[in-house]
Design brief:
This protein is mainly beta and about 550 residues long. It folds into four domains: about 1-170, Glucose Permease (Domain IIA); about 180-345, no CATH class; about 360-465, Chondroitinase Ac, Chain A, domain 3, CATH 2.60.220.30; about 470-560, Immunoglobulin-like (Sandwich), CATH 2.60.40. The chain contains five helices and 48 strands. Strands 15, 16, 17, 18, 19, 20, 21, 22, 23, 24, 25, 26 and 27 form a 13-stranded mixed β-sheet that branches. Strands 1, 4, 6, 7, 8, 10, 11, 13 and 14 form a nine-stranded antiparallel β-sheet that branches. It has a five-stranded antiparallel β-sheet with strand order 29-30-34-38-37, with no helix packed on it. The protein is globular, with a radius of gyration of 28 Å. About 35% of the residues are buried.
Length: about 550
């Protein structure tokens, strides 16, 4: 090991000289690299931190270590990355492999021993540098679809020694891409009430004109004052139809650069500011992600470069100018957007007075709202800016604005339930209401005496909900008092219709067994290779509990040789 750490020291010295070594990391799969997701792609509430590599719509492909090193972290969870492996390399970088189906035999043995020791499927371990040493080209896992994956693929990351994800393509990983980025919408934004665009003081969508050479333009806009712009734009690789992210966006006004966003590296702590970078209101209402080419308060993204006047242009009377946007993918394919801008005073703008709620939120201080039995507590700097909030309570239903305002922090909702009967209090929880039918969805709820509390990071409609129904458990591939000698796995379906599954525990002949929970299929699976059952006659017992404490017990006997 002393030679390994000597190599680390030498490599870290060279790391400062060459931050992105070429040909050091290999393709983690033995298939042609085709992506379903690119680095820093815009996702819900975060930037994508790696590459999503297609696995030919199947699981079980061999996953290779991108370079030599040691396994420094293993995490297994129901959601998020699912089964994930982290390898620290001698040059200081860490490669990450996520949504795995299973690990290689040596790593699988290590993590299963931890799971049985802790009697928990969800575990996180940090092996020492000499426990699981990895060589280049070593198979470390098999691709899968675990966690919050939307389909079979390998999520692959490279992080620096400060845990910042970096675009793996900067290290020489080659993806065939000959297509330039495309634009699907363009918007113009007056900065304040002293600005206007085509006689309006509100956001305006511009008519996009595509050209045969792949570039775009709009009709001239007539404006005055400080104006910003935003684009809905994506990229595609040659062998995939997925709408992926860009590598770089720049804007120019009369030839001078006003804004640049370089999607090269970011920190996980800043990723939440994606909701300030995009037009959050449009995203929530139309699902379009407008990338704003101007910087508003609270947007501290490190990917921002060369921003002049916060990215706004200043349009003066009787001027004729051109605003241009350059959109580039990682392979250097580019598209240009041109917007002619003519400085012209607005005609008299008669706007109907906007009816706003009376409750005012100040972003730089604590805000606490109370009505009837409900209290809402916003810590300081929960919001990016001051605004008037729509707040009302009626019959245990809470209306808390619309979910169109981006938040930096979670806030707390509290319900006083002292007016409920004692037998009902344990079955209550705070729910977020979604969709046209306002269906209730459980929010993690705590109870202290007669007070329920929950933390959330989105506004909208909330209510108290009551769950008195226990989860359901049913066998999938076996029957009570039947033989199971030909089966490799034991499977059951579990479900809960309201508050959702909180935890489960399974035993065979009184011994805890590891059952993998796939929430997307509502399935618990036990692998007979774990060899917990050594008897011919086996008694299976499964207890499943929902989030308010309702539990169900399933018992069966099976025979196996």
């Amino acid at each position: 090991m002393k030679y390994l750490f000597a190599f680390i020291f030498i490599s870290q010295f060279s790391f400062a000289q060459s931050p992105y070594p070429q040909d050091y990391f290999r393709n983690p799969l033995d298939v042609t690299l085709v992506l379903s997701g690119t680095f820093a792609e815009l996702r819900s509430n975060h930037f994508h931190s790696g590459l999503d590599i297609k696995t030919q719509q199947r699981t079980g492909l061999k996953v290779y270590a991108a370079a030599q090193g040691y396994v420094s972290r293993i995490k297994v969870s129901h959601f998020g990355y699912g089964k994930a492996l982290y390898i620290t390399h001698p040059n200081g970088y860490v490669s990450v492999y996520a949504h795995l189906d299973k690990f290689s035999p040596e790593i699988q043995k290590y993590i299963k021993a931890c799971q049985y020791e802790k009697e928990s499927y969800e575990v996180e371990m940090f092996p020492s540098p000499d426990e699981l040493i990895i060589e280049t080209d070593q198979v470390v896992a098999f691709s899968g679809n675990t966690g919050s994956s939307g389909g079979p693929h390998l999520h692959f990351e490279i992080r620096d020694n400060e845990e910042r994800p970096i675009n793996p393509m900067l290290f020489g990983m080659d993806i065939k891409d000959s297509k330039p980025p495309f634009i699907s919408a363009v918007y113009a934004y007056p900065k304040n009430r002293n600005s206007h665009i085509d006689d309006t003081k509100k956001r305006k969508e511009l008519r996009l004109i595509p050209h045969k050479n792949g570039d775009y333009s709009t009709e001239p806009i007539y404006a005055l004052g400080d104006i910003g712009f935003g684009v809905v734009s994506n990229d595609q690789q040659d062998f995939a139809n997925n709408k992926n992210g860009l590598s770089n966006i720049q804007s120019f006004y009369n030839g001078n650069k006003t804004f640049e966003m370089d999607f090269k590296r970011f920190t996980f702590a800043e990723s939440k500011h994606i909701n300030r970078f995009i037009d959050y209101e449009i995203y929530k209402e139309k699902k379009d992600r407008i990338q704003k080419l101007f910087v508003q308060s609270g947007n501290t993204l490190s990917m921002l470069k060369n921003v002049n006047n916060q990215g706004y242009i200043k349009v003066e009377d009787s001027t004729s100018s051109v605003y241009k946007v350059r959109l580039v993918d990682f392979k250097g394919n580019e598209s240009w957007l041109s917007i002619p801008v003519i400085g012209k005073p607005a005609k008299e703008i008669l706007e109907a007075p906007e009816l706003k709620p009376s409750t005012y939120i100040l972003a730089n201080q604590v805000n606490e709202l109370e009505k009837e039995n409900v209290t809402v507590y916003f810590p300081t700097q929960t919001f990016y800016e001051d605004f008037q909030i729509d707040f009302n309570v009626r019959n245990d239903s809470l209306k808390l604005h619309k979910d169109v305002v981006p938040l930096m922090k979670s806030f707390t909702i509290k319900y006083d339930i002292s007016h409920y009967a004692d037998e009902d209090k344990d079955k209550l929880f705070i729910a977020k209401l979604y969709g046209y039918y306002q269906n209730a969805s459980y929010i993690s709820t705590k109870r202290i005496g007669d007070m329920l509390s929950a933390r959330t990071k989105t506004m909208g409609n909330f209510a108290l909900a009551r769950d008195t129904v226990s989860p359901t458990i049913r066998p999938v591939n076996f029957q009570n008092k039947k033989w199971l000698s030909k089966e490799n796995y034991l499977k059951v379906k579990i479900a809960d219709d309201l508050s959702g599954i909180s935890n489960y525990r399974a035993t065979i002949n009184g011994k805890w067994i590891l059952m993998e929970y796939d929430y997307k299929k509502d399935t618990l699976t036990y692998d007979f290779e774990d060899n917990i059952n050594s008897e011919t006659e086996n008694n299976l017992k499964i207890i499943v509990t929902d989030n308010v404490g309702n539990s169900a017990t399933f018992e069966a006997t099976f025979f196996r040789k």
